[in-house]
Amino acid sequence: MKLDSRKKSKQLNYRLSTFPYHRFIENIDYKFNELELGVLEVDARKTFITCPICGYVDKRKRISKEVFRCGRCGFTFNAQYTACLNIFSRLDDSEITIRSGRMYLISHKAA
Ligand SMILES: [Zn+2]
């Protein structure tokens, strides 16, 4: 059983290492341009270990794969959503921004 899961992990690692990311990004760019939508690139490094509220970075403060807890301010949230908040906060986009732990989405209609 353990051997089987190790084999699956190896297969997944191989698939991920040979995944054509460059081509995938090109296809996304093409499809979004076709729909006249813009694509914004974000540096996703350390988004899983960074607190979106205070900016504290510490890999050891992750409780589990599913739960993130900040070692400084105590912010606790789903790790996937925390990473999403960090990605939003890194967007160099005036329409989507996070300041002081609040996310602001600025609508075109409101402007
Ligand atoms: Zn924090």
Can you tell me about this structure?
- This protein is α+β, with helices and mostly antiparallel strands.
- It folds into two domains: 1-39, no CATH class; 43-111, no CATH class.
- Helix content is 38%, strand content 13%.
- The protein has three helices and four strands; from the N terminus they run ααββαββ.
- It has helices spanning 2-17, 21-34, 79-90; strands at residues 67-69, 76-78, 96-99, 102-105.
- The strands form two sheets. Strands 1-2 form a two-stranded antiparallel ribbon. Strands 3-4 form a two-stranded antiparallel ribbon.
- Strand 3 and strand 4 form a beta hairpin.
- It is flat.
- The mean pLDDT is 79.
- The chain binds zinc ion.
- Residues 51, 53-54, 56, 70, 72-73, 75 line the site of zinc ion (ZN).
